[in-house]
Specification:
binds cytidine-5'-triphosphate; alpha/beta; 14 helices; elongated; five-stranded parallel sheet; 35% helix
């Protein structure tokens, strides 16, 4: 699920295990990834570019000075587009170049220019692997947040036995999943609101809406998995409290406002996914309202717009709102983005309210508009967080 629709650059370097990258391409495609192969000159001496092009369904990027194979995509655009770069196999040479910041071919240039995470699967002779310079380079990359998978132990292409074999492809696939969802929100304090609020009419009746809370809970869980500290302020919901989050259960809009504003100053990212009541009864009857008259009028007053208040008080927080729209989606949602002083707004339709899936359009302060297909809310959550990470890093402009 994490891999589906992700843009994965597959860097292939000149190790004997280069042929195993073909199997990786096949598995990545099977999981729904969009694979962009890049081959180094040495890799092309060992294996044909055509095999990668055929399996990936995309041309091989191998010439820094030629926008690739008729796609018109430059290496910088490719670096921007990537969700992950996977280098399989990674020789001592490529590891050394990346660790030293060298960018002298397509692969190293794309690695230097990307905001995406990079997974490296080393494969080399055991003495090379044990060389303190290579070991030091791998440690340096680990410390920079690179994902390293393997190497494994066993028979090596050079005839020796030892540590240096490319990790099994299944292990690299697991590493891809983990690296894609690893800690790109580490250090962030994320406040998520979820579900509906209830505004009491009398002790047994209330005004509410059909929000299940699933979108907000999915956002809280995904943010936690990606390394953030998460506070979840939730209205009534049947969903289990995600382990690991700081949970604040509330009922009314005013309670949600109080809890959210309390956690707001220390938050770095706020996602208001709750469907907060816009109005509440002016009067809450202390006893059950009896059916005495044929017409009953309930007078309503506006609740506090929590998000708008945050927008006016913000001090470095990244603010995301939701908008429920039935028509003129982009115009209406963009207006809310400006009125509430937000960084991003996620527009959805009422159909998503109590469903497992959601079809959303994300609009950000840079006027980027992304209309997503209908997806499980868990996938929508990860995609929203992907865009937040990119916008915060200034990668999306
Ligand atoms: N929101 C809020 N406080 C409220 C009402 C809404 O913080 N009292 C937040 C919601 O959590 C959501 C966003 O504001 O992130 C929705 O904005 P709103 O203008 O209420 O959107 P709609 O409900 O779609 O508005 P309208 O009915 O005016 O189209």
């Amino acid at each position: 699920m994490v891999i589906r629709d992700k843009n994965i650059i597959l860097g292939v370097t000149g190790g004997i295990a280069a042929y195993k990258a073909l199997e990786l391409t096949r598995l990545l495609k099977k999981e729904g990834a969009v694979v962009w192969p890049i081959m180094t000159e040495s890799a092309k001496k060992l294996i044909s570019a055509l095999s990668f092009e055929t399996l990936a369904g995309n041309p091989v990027f191998d010439d820094l000075f030629r926008p690739t194979g008729g796609t018109g995509i430059s290496h910088i655009e490719l670096a921007d587009r990537a969700d992950l770069i996977v280098i399989v196999p990674a020789t001592a040479n490529i590891i050394g170049k990346i660790a030293s910041g060298i960018a002298d071919d397509t692969l190293t240039t794309v690695v230097m220019a990307t905001g995406a995470r990079v997974l490296i699967a080393p494969a080399m002779n055991h003495r090379m692997y044990e060389n303190p310079i290579v070991k030091g380079n791998i440690e340096k990359l680990k410390a920079q947040g690179y994902c390293i998978v393997g190497p494994g132990e066993g028979e090596l292409a050079c005839g020796w036995e030892g540590k240096g074999r490319l990790a099994p492809i299944e292990e690299i696939m697991d590493g891809v999943g983990e690296c894609l969802s690893t800690k790109d929100l580490a250090g962030e304090k994320v406040l998520v609101t979820a579900a509906s609020t209830r505004e009491a009419i009398d002790p047994v009746r209330f005004i509410s809406n059909a929000s299940s809370g699933r979108m907000g809970y999915a956002l809280a869980k995904a943010a936690l998995r990606r390394g953030a500290e998460v506070v979840l302020v939730s209205g009534p919901s049947a969903l289990p409290v995600p382990p690991g989050v700081t949970f604040v259960g509330v009922t009314t809009a005013s309670e949600m406002g109080e809890a959210s504003i309390r956690y707001f100053p220390q938050s770095t990212i706020v996602v208001m996914a709750a469907a907060v009541a816009d109005y509440r009864p002016v009067k809450r009857h202390p006893t059950k309202v009896k059916k005495v008259s044929s017409l009953l009028t309930i007078e309503l007053e506006r609740t506090q717009d929590i998000l708008k208040e945050m927008g006016s008080k913000r001090n470095g927080q990244f603010l995301v709102g939701f908008a429920l729209e039935t028509e003129d989606v982009v115009d209406n949602a963009s207006r809310k983005l400006k009125e509430k002083n937000l960084d991003m707004v996620v527009a959805n339709s009422p159909r998503g309210l109590s469903s497992d899936t959601n079809q959303v359009t994300v609009i950000d302060r840079e006027n980027n508009v992304e209309a997503m297909p209908p997806l499980l809310k868990e996938e929508v959550a990860d995609r929203i967080l992907d865009r937040i990470v990119k916008l915060k890093k200034g990668v999306l402009k």
